[in-house]
Amino acid sequence: MFRWAYSIDQSDLRFTGLKICMASKPSHTSLAAEELLRCLSDPLDQGAFGLVYTLENYPSLAAKEFQLDGFADDTIRELECKLNTYTKLIHPNVLRCHQVLRDGELIYTIVDRYKETVERMIIRHKRKIQPIPEQEILLVLEQAASGLAYLHDPKKTDAKRNPLPAVVHGALEPSSILVSDGVHFALANYGIPGKLMQKGSGAATSYSAPETPLHGRITVASDIWALGVIVYELAALNRPNFVKDGDPQVVFTGDWRPNLTAVKSVHIKEILGRILVLDPEARPSAKELVDLVKNPMVIPMMVSEDLRTQMKSLKQDLKSKSNDVTLLKSIIEAQSSDLAFLKKELRTKLSRIDKLEAQCNDYALQMQSLKNSIEQQRQQFNKATEEFRNQIARGCKLNNLIPIDDSSWTPLMCAAFIGDIETAKQHLSDKDKKNSDGDTALMIAARAGHVNIVELLDPTDGNGVTALMRAADRNDMKAAKLLVPLQKKRTAGDMEINGLWISRGTALIRAAAYGHTGVVRLLAEHENGMKDAHGRTALIIAAAKDHVECVRLLVGYEGGLQDNCGSTALMHAVYYNHVECATLLVKKEKNMKTTHEWHGCRSGLTALDIAKNNGYRELVGVLSK
């Protein structure tokens, strides 16, 4: 049975287990819910958004069905609100919606019944290979434009003079223009919410204006473009494909013009030339289209005005070019005398060049002799250099590379310095010793960039924990700074860190978990924005653990980022009642919402909602400012 129904006459509302949704007063008698169920007959048509049924005993009416399953509550509420408004629209070229009823996941609208659509009219003419007369096309254009002008009008009112909003059709195509007796046309499927439109016919994309795929915008100008495509299809009996298989970004560029060769009517071709333009602002309004069709002299006048403007511009260009020609003539005359002088000068210099060429030939012979001599000396130098290198390789030992007077350097440190891994393996027992500068062999190897020595001294374990991560864990700033170039941006496996279970955490995330401010400051430049397996950033971890200074450092890098549930650092701070951390985060994350259920909180909640749910009065005050 129906969960709620909308009764048209508010003076006769029935509450027989039904919930009233909307109200208006149409010209037809309203149907009770049970009567609608009995009257639903065979499907009349498969519309873009659901079936359209005939109604027994009501030959002038039809019932349009909207299927709601799979849509969010806000989308359904938006549809209900729009349908409520549409029951108040009254225009001969806009489909009249008399009544709205809901049955669970279905909404039915009681509308006027029409015999066919423009789509079927086109198909009929295609089958007969019979062109549609120009006057019939102009009649479709005039009435559809009249309906759009009414929908687009922001100043229209209902029967009680209450203001009604402007409506963008948003899904205009041949199947959404209804036809009665071949002379009366009305717009249907107007103003449907965007998420419901995605469930409609895929063919609608052929009627989409360029700004829709390029910028995601649908405006009143987009409706005008769609109407132009429909007029093209009526005139050519073939739907245009301006993009074909190309990329709209590449096709719709500044010099794009529609190919209208398939349109034979000069009148219609001129109208389409003004509708199918890339700039939405340059397209005529729906009201202007009505005027174009009603007054055939408007287009020639507009064309004449364009020609006069072009003629004036051409005359100005011609005058400017004439002045340029006069100036060029005077320049040529002046340069003719200069050219004669230059020719004489050239002959003099050519004789000098001949003499210089002879001298250059002599110099070339001398240069070749010098090159041969230099090549011999280079070979001798290379030979001497190679011998010197061999002597160094044979005679230089470790003490030649490291100050021999610094007794604090162990053999392991020396091996780490020069990258001698074999020697390093023999002295691993000294890896924790420090020299007079406070450096361990690990620090020396990291500073020298010897990755293999670093892995030998502090190897990455089976869980992916690196030397840099261990330095971050123990707040070892000096070691961390040296290891960053070698091991930054790596992640480890699953483990518990300071009471938090972290998977694929970075060195920065681990430092944030422990609250090591200095290490966080160092690593933030290299690992900010990286997340663990749950989508948590270092900022989220720091906020959850109430590490205020770490939050202060990281908010500039990671403020506004969300984890896999859509929760932010601010939400974590609020959830654990960390007031000071929340104060630092409120500016960047106050209005963000969860996208999934999180810690018992449903999706779509803000940090303020979470604070209210948990009864944190102080936080509610902070977040309400």
Automatic annotation (TrEMBL):
Species this protein is from: Giardia intestinalis (strain ATCC 50581 / GS clone H7)
Protein name: Kinase, NEK
SMART domains: ANK
Residue stretches making up the Protein kinase domain: 38-298
Keywords, alphabetical: ANK repeat, Coiled coil, Kinase, Transferase
Coiled-coil portions: 304-394
InterPro entries: Ankyrin_rpt, Ankyrin_rpt-contain_sf, Kinase-like_dom_sf, Prot_kinase_dom
A GO molecular-function descriptor: protein kinase activity
Family matches, as SUPFAM superfamilies: Ankyrin repeat, Protein kinase-like (PK-like)
Pfam families in alphabetical order: Ank (PF00023), Ank_2 (PF12796), Pkinase (PF00069)
TM helices/strands, residue ranges: none
